Amino acid sequence: MVVFPDVEALLCTWLRTHLPTTVTVGNKLPNPRPDLFVLVQRHGGTRYTVVTDAAQIGLECWAVHDYKAHDLLQQCRWLLLYCLPGRILDGHTVYRVDEMGGPSNLPDPISSMPRWVMELQVHVRGTAAA
Amino acid sequence: MKRVRIVLNRKGVRDLLRSPEVLADLKRRAEAIAAAAGDGMEPSAMVGKNRARASVITATHSARRAEAVTRALTRAIDAGRN
């Protein structure tokens, strides 16, 4: 039996160490909203093999200006697609990161705050249940 | 070791991808995603030039808002996997 990790938490922790300290990273919308914010939320995804989970991760980058939200998303995209695969996060190997949906300009309809979003699939190895 | 050469019957593959069975399967998946996503999501399926395809769109204002705020349609993709 295999237990899969909390991919949201793994990615939030990893992104925090690789993004500037001015960027807030989390899995819930903070109130009040910071100037630069990355929201990492799991939107589904199923078990891929007996030992790997293919988590569908939604990435949202919020900023006070549209271009800053875009640039932040591209930075996260680069980190996740090119720097993350092969790394071991808290004992869990990240095998592969695929794009499910590319960058999309989707301002928040409630606050009109600029927001760029994208959808990723992150393949992570689980651990044997005790 | 003897090498094996595989030649795809491209017309056969095309006929398969455009078959009523594939269209029905895609339609079923699109309907499942739309049902899981909530009201205002509209599934559709059609046979294209080379393959059948299906899609789900946000057809109403409230559906578009649900996708923008809670990512209702994006979160429902798993409903189409089985």
Note the gap between the termini of chain B: 39 Å
**Average residue-wise pLDDT of chain A:** 96
Strand order of the largest sheet of chain B: 1-2
Structural class of chain B: alpha+beta
Major beta sheet, strand line-up of chain A: 2-3-4-7-6-5
Largest sheet of chain B: 2 strands, antiparallel
Strand content of chain A: 35-45%
From the alpha-carbon coordinates, what is the Rg of chain A to the nearest angstrom?
15 Å
Helix count from the secondary structure assignment of chain B: 4
Oligomer: heterodimer
Total beta strands of chain A = 8
Distance between the termini of chain A: 9 Å
Strand content of chain B: 15-25%
Radius of gyration of chain B, taken over Cα atoms and rounded to an integer in Å: 17 Å
Helix content of chain A: 10-25%
What's the total helix number of chain A? 2
Question: Roughly what percent helix of chain B?
Answer: 40-55%
Sum up the structure in keywords.
heterodimer; A: 130 residues; alpha+beta; six-stranded mixed β-sheet; two-stranded antiparallel ribbon; 8 strands; 42% strand; B: 82 residues; two-stranded antiparallel sheet; 49% helix; 17% strand
Q: Could you please describe the fold and organization of this structure?
A:
The complex is a heterodimer of chains A (130) and B (82). Chain A is an alpha+beta fold and 130 residues long. Chain A has two helices and eight strands. A six-stranded mixed beta sheet of chain A has the order 2-3-4-7-6-5. The longest helix of chain A is centred in the middle third of the chain and has 18 residues. The mean pLDDT of chain A is 96. With 82 residues, chain B is α+β, with helices and mostly antiparallel strands. Chain B contains four helices and two strands. The radius of gyration of chain B is 17 Å and the shape is elongated. Chain B starts with 9 loop residues before the first helix and ends in a 7-residue tail after the last helix. The chains are: A alpha+beta (130), B alpha+beta (82). Chains A and B meet through strand 3 of A and helix 3 of B.
